[in-house]
Amino acid sequence: MSDDVAGKVALVTGSTSGIGLAIACRLARAGFQVAAHGLESAADAQEALDRIGAEGGPAPVYFHADLSRSEESHDLTKAVIDRFGRIDILVNNAGIQKVAAIDNFAQEDWDRIIAVSLDSAFQTIRTALPGMKKRGWGRIVNIASAHGLRASPFKSAYVATKHAVVGLTKTVALEVAEAGITCNAICPGYVWTPLVAAQVADQARVHGMSEEDVVRKVMLAPQPTRKFVQPEEVAELAHYLTQELARSITGAALSIDGGWTAK
Q: Residue 80 class from Cβ within 10 Å (0-12 exposed, 13-18 middle, 19+ buried)?
């Protein structure tokens, strides 16, 4: 197949802000029909939809779902297929974070992080794959993390989940290797997003540091560049993975972390 995107549909979970919004915008610019997703109401998501729509291509369509509920992850994917008849590109980006020592880590926080970041990817993949197999083409991109390759203290659920996402990615890639479908994980370091911004206060509390010191000594310390990754950088990599020349890249955990995991 060529890189003709006409008629192809891309579902991007968690696409009303941060990395997900940047990816949705990039895929819209490439001409894909974007199915955007978020937890907020359609009215509250309108600003993000306007940004996606401004990139050109078909008008984005918004789907609401609470991915902490397993059945809603399945229903989201099915709703996109019912609306457009297909999902060609699936980007599992939705994720949440909690910073706390494991002996103070609330069970409900653990369960919610696992559900949103891991269980939802399982549900969306298993629902989207039959159509991809039938058409003989598909691209699955899971947004993992440098924490899918390295650990940090006070992030037990997030680190465990992102390691699992990398493992899920590899397994799916092997299962569909002859079906014209690729499955890869992108492992960003610290990207300046609302999710990361929200961590600053938590990290300051846990480490007993100022928020400025948290950014400089904790967040950016692992990244040799000492710079935050920008959402648009991740979006460009995600877009590349959708292209035909990326057909041999599968089962990979691709770092974009300012050199963090090179150490």
A: buried
